[in-house]
Amino acid sequence: MTTEKNSSRWILVIAGFIINLCLGTIYAWSVFRPALEDKNGLFKLPAWQSVIPFSVFLLAFGVSFAFSGRMIGKVGPRRPALIGAGLLSVGYLLCYSIAMFPESSLWITILAFGLVAGTGCGFAYNPPIAVVGRWFPDKRGLALGLTVMGFGLSALVTAPAVSAMISMLGLPYTFLALGIVFLVLLSLLGLFMRFPSAEWKAPSTASASPKPWCPSAIEFTSNQMVRTSTFYLTWFIFLIGAGAGLMVIGNAKQIATTVTGLTGDMTWLTTLAVSVLAVANAGGRPFFGSVCDRIGPRNTLLIMQGIQLLCLVILFPYATSAPVLYLAIILFAATFGAYLSVMPALACYFFGTNNLGPNYGMYLSAYGVGGVVCPMIMAFILGAMPTYATYVQGFYVTAGLLLVAVVLALLMKNPRPPKTA
């Protein structure tokens, strides 16, 4: 029976990957926007309005992720996964009503897509992480990396599919079709979400010697976790590292145009750079997750930070040719994606797996804050008319923040066992 469970646990990784692939459709929002902005169409939204549903979605995602984590700690992963499937699908289905009320398309997409679907995404994103974290104590970083890889890879799959659907069906029916597909698929996959029984053991952990960087068999509740200095050090590391990655992702095409000078006949290379970024972002998750399994969270974080500094100080400022630009994008995007697998693995290694759902829910708030702070700093430096000089200045300022994160990683240590009453 144990052998059967050990082999079937990889099915949970596949299920989690597909769930993330569906949830990551948010990264394809830029494909939805032209139909909303078309001056000859029904909706005629200005560009500054069509981005609001995307921002509301990310905000709702970040807030609901924490609530999903608390729910997992109380009732297990299946119910939050099914709630997330329902809310996400209903959000997409409600967006169909823009066909009947085109003059209200902004508020419909803000409430239905942004608030309802965004909340569903937060509820559905957490369960696969919590489940895989428990089923893979022996290969936690790799398994988590493969699970969340679907979110980073989603745009490469969903963006062309959504674009084709909008061309054939129109925007309202595309929302309707996606809502139906997500309702069926995510509900079925949500039923797979389950924790192993208390007596189950991974195949290679019984005889394995404890790793020096992993205080094994220590379980922290969220309240106990936030009383440790380790949590705050790693929270700020997550904020700076992920925020720097989101800063580059948000400006990738502009960096290719302004810094590398890919204009005119070379413009297609800027679009290709965004696709390369998505692949590297996805691939960095299982790669660095596996590295974390071998050498531990601190050493992995230091390697990731070193690569980020190399890109910001040397590669990006001197990316005056396409090969250097692509090298910088591949390295930087891979390290950005790595945070989404290394940080939940770190939370398991330091604070245990029993409360990974609520614990990582608190960690992911750093991702949301970093996604606001670092891009805003970059936008302030770039000003209204970005130039090569202002981009280089922005790279150096971001590198300065990363140096702070390096110091925090060097100060990071195993948390003391929680005090018992």
Q: Any low-confidence stretches, pLDDT <50, length ≥5?
A: none
Write the element-wise H/E pattern from the N-terminal end onward.
HHHHHHHHHHHHHHH
Number of domains: 2
Rg of Cα set: 21 Å
CATH overall fold name of the largest domain: Growth Hormone, Chain: A
What is the global morphology? Answer: globular
Mean pLDDT: 87
Structural class of the helix and strand makeup?
A: mainly alpha
Q: Report the CATH superfamily of the largest domain.
A: MFS general substrate transporter like domains
Just give the CATH class of the largest domain: Mainly Alpha
* CATH architecture label name of the largest domain: Up-down Bundle
Count the beta strands.
0
Profile the largest sheet. Answer: none
